[in-house]
Structures are given as C-alpha cells and as structure tokens.
Specification:
With 458 residues, the protein is α+β, with helices and mostly antiparallel strands. It folds into two domains: 285 residues, Aminopeptidase; 132 residues, 2-Layer Sandwich (Alpha-Beta Plaits). Helices cover 34% and strands 21% of the residues. A hairpin with a 6-residue loop joins β1 and β2. α1 packs across α4, α5 runs parallel beside α13 and α12 crosses α14. It is elongated and about 85 Å long. The structure holds zinc ion (ZN).
C-alpha cells in the first residue's frame, strides 16, 4: 500500500464524525424535487454542494441552471492526461416524505438510532454523495488525487423526464471521461459488497381495441358483436406460451445468451425462490422455463400487463357490451434488444392475430434501452479489488430488473461504461417512511472508494 493511500485511509477513519455532520447538514435541506413549494430548498441544496465541493478541493465548481432544477458540476483534473478521468454521478433531490404519520422521527431532522441514521435522503442518495465527497477529501487533504475527478449532481432524478439528458448532450466535452461512477445503487447486505452491471430497458405500450361505436345492450347485441374485452383478453393471453415465453415473433432474437460463467456469478446472489415467495406473498412462482428466479428478473426479457380496463367495473351489475377495451402492457428488455423494434414486433403480433371484427391502436408510452457494463473492465476490476480489501470478499454481480434511464443516457451519449455501486442495504426504506442508512457500512464504503481511486491509477 502506498504511503499516501495509508494516510488517506487514516484521514477518512479519523473524520467519520465530520462526514456524519456534513450528511446531517445536507439532509436537513428538504430538497423535494416534485414539490414546487420546495424550489428554494432545491436551490439551497445546490448552493450547499457548490460550497462543499470548493472546500474539499475541486478546482472548478459551477451551478448550471436548467428549466427546472439546477445541475451542479465540479472538477479537479490535476492528475493530468495520463491518469483516468472518473465522472461521479449524483442527485441531490429526494422523494416526498409521505406518509408523514408513519415516520418515527422527523424526516428532515437526521436522527441517530444505534448504528443507523434516519432521514429522507440518508441512503437515496445524500449519504452516498457525502461518501464520495469524504473519500475525495481524504485523498486531497493528504496529497494529490491519483485520478481526475468530475462531479455531475442533478436535482431532478426523482421526478422523471429529467433535463439531464439534454445537458449531457450539450456538454459532452465538459463531461468527457473514461467511465462514470454511479453510487446510487446498493449492497445486498452489510457484508455483501455488490456491483450492479446491468439494467433492463423498457418499452411501455397502451393498447386499445375498438368495437361498436358506443356501449351496447349485451342482451340485444350479445351473439353478433365481437366483444372488445373478449378480443383484448384473447390477444393478451396469446402473448405467453405455456413455458412462460413471450410469443411475439423475433422477441428473443437479439437477447444476448447467458454464458455459464455469468450464470455462476448470478447464482451467488442470496436471492433464491423463497426470497421472491416471501416478498410477494404468493404460494408458488411462475416464469420462463429453464431459468432461475434471479435470471428471470434480471437477465431475461419479460412482458407484463400493467393495467386492464373495459366495460362496467362499478358496484352491482350492468349488462353492457363495451365499445372498447384498453390495456397497459410493458416489456422489460435486456441487451441487445431495442425498445423501438419491440414496438414493431408488437404491432406485427396484433396485425397477425387481431380479428377483423375490431380495430386496434398501439401507442408507445416509454422506450428506454437496456444497458450493461463490461464486468472485466479496468474500472470494475479496480472496484473488485477495493471491495475485497475492505470487506474481505469478492463483490456480488447484480443485474437489476428495473430501468435507470440516467445510466443508459450517460452510457449512450458519452460512450462510456458505468460502475454502479452504493452502500445502502436492504431495509433502508428508500422512498418510504423511516428511510435510513447503516453508518458502519457507509464508512466502509468511503474506505472502499479511497482504495478504488488509488487502484484506478495502477
Ligand atoms: Zn437515487
């Protein structure tokens, strides 16, 4: 271990109290991005970050206004052209505190209970932002940075439709980097360091089946009019076969096969069938044959009916033959599926299977690409080493079933890989009441980041 790394680690350990105080300061600013009344707090959080970034030794710090909430940018490129450049992503906005009655302490008064700090944003993700600050500070207060560092911290992550995508497109040179670090994911347990290397994409549709020009009396017309609700259920039920596979022609054509080595990694995750049964409260699981639950939820594409509406659904009865039926349907996609191509495949399925007694319309509501990082990249290798040093074990490799558009946007626009990590653990109640962070894990995370930045140089 280099002397600098040693003293930086000691500095980080000696300054845990200061880290905690900083977290408390930032968390106490209720920067709820959805609430127009909190606009001043959003601005305050951005200013707080700006000052903090200058104090910890960033050489250029700037707040960029956007049509909604400002973006904070900072850099220290003193490591020079030979050293890699890391772009650290973060978001300083938080979810609303609702339901307020279920909080045991005030959501914006950070409260320590045992090893945990309770407050909105403690894990998602002000705590994690401060962890990156503390790691950088520990290195800069004891010497020079081994890598170039850029921070990109937005205030619109929790509202969707973030301006960040436009900002990245317009500032490609400013944000140029070798890879980006996204500390907004988590660990599967306090002793289970984890790297999220793949996220599923999504394509989301609204399907309408139109029949008669208006609702009809089912006694008068039942028997001669093809009921749109019936057509809808026929079409939807035809989308899976009896092995749990999606039947759209070509749906699996671009799916990257799972290699045995990757399946072995995924099988290390502590997420057996019991986990899903317990969490969901069902008696039995369902899904595509030939794949484990972890593979089905992260590494295989799926199709779900998210909503279904037709006819009369109030109390009592009404003998109606509905004029139309509507369904919300989404697919979760894996590399190298393309959400726009899936839209075309769905249209082909409907063209081939919808009867000519009705008309149909398929609208696209969302389309985000899947993403995957190279598990063998020098960046991931550097984090594996860091985690092994701090936790004494090889990190778990996680594929998340959901979609995180910001990761995909940065990857696509800047053409770089992501290292998705984080120090939140299960039970952190992100987005829910009593959000909390496990402080000993966060402090270990700071040490892992210090190791990580030094490992990148070698
Ligand atoms: Zn987050």
């Amino acid at each position: 271990m280099t002397d600098h790394k040693k003293v930086a680690l000691l500095y980080a350990q000696d300054h845990q109290k200061q880290t905690l105080d900083k977290m408390k300061e930032l968390i106490a600013i209720p920067s709820i991005s959805t609430d127009p009344e909190r606009k001043d707090d959003i601005q305050k959080a951005a200013e707080w970050l700006k000052k903090e970034l200058s104090d910890l030794g960033m050489t250029k710090v700037e707040i960029f206004p956007t049509p909604r909430h400002p973006i904070v940018y900072a850099e220290n490129l003193n490591a020079g052209k030979e050293a890699p450049t890391v772009l650290i992503y973060g978001h300083y906005d938080v979810q609303p505190e609702d339901p307020i009655d279920e909080w045991k302490s005030d959501p914006f008064t950070p409260t320590e209970v045992g090893e945990f700090l309770y407050a909105r944003g403690s894990t998602d993700m002000k705590g994690q932002i401060i962890a990156t600050f503390s790691a950088v500070e520990a290195i800069l207060q004891t010497g020079e940075l081994p890598v170039n560092i850029k921070f990109l911290i937005e205030g619109e992550e929790e509202i969707g439709g973030s301006y960040l995508e436009v900002f990245i497109k317009e500032n490609k040179d400013l944000l140029a980097c070798d890879f980006f670090l996204n500390p907004d994911t988590g660990m599967l347990g306090p002793d289970l360091p984890s790297i999220t290397y793949a996220l599923r994409g999504i394509s989301y549709f609204e399907l309408r089946i139109m029949g008669p020009k208006q609702d009809l009396h089912s006694g008068t017309y039942g028997g001669v009019i093809h009921n749109p609700a019936q057509v809808m259920t026929d079409l939807l039920s035809g989308l899976h076969d009896d092995q749990g596979r999606v039947t759209m022609k070509g749906f699996y054509d671009k799916v990257l096969p799972l290699e045995q080595e990757e399946r072995d990694e995924l099988s290390r995750l502590p997420l057996g069938d019991d986990h899903y049964i317990d969490q969901a409260g069902v008696s039995k699981l369902w899904g595509e044959e030939g794949y484990t639950s972890v593979e089905r939820t992260g590494a295989r594409p799926t199709l779900e009916i998210n909503g279904l509406y037709s006819g009369f659904i109030d109390e009592g009865q009404k003998t109606v033959l509905p004029a139309y039926a509507m369904a919300k349907v989404s697919t979760r996609l894996v590399p190298d599926q393309d959400p726009d191509e899936i839209y075309e495949l769905f249209k082909t399925y409907l063209a081939e299977n919808a009867p000519d007694t009705v008309t149909w319309q398929l609208d696209k509501l969302a389309a985000d690409h899947p993403s995957m990082s190279d598990r063998k990249s020098p960046w991931i290798t550097a984090y594996i080493k860091a985690a092994e040093t701090v936790w004494g074990k090889r990190p778990l490799f996680v594929r998340i079933g959901g979609s995180v558009p910001v990761v995909v946007h940065i990857q696509q626009i800047l053409g770089v890989d992501a290292v998705n990590i984080g120090f939140g653990i299960p039970g952190g109640n992100l987005h829910g009441p009593n959000e909390n962070v496990h402080l000993p894990t966060l402090y270990k995370g700071i040490e892992a980041l210090v190791h990580f930045f030094f490992n990148l140089k070698q």
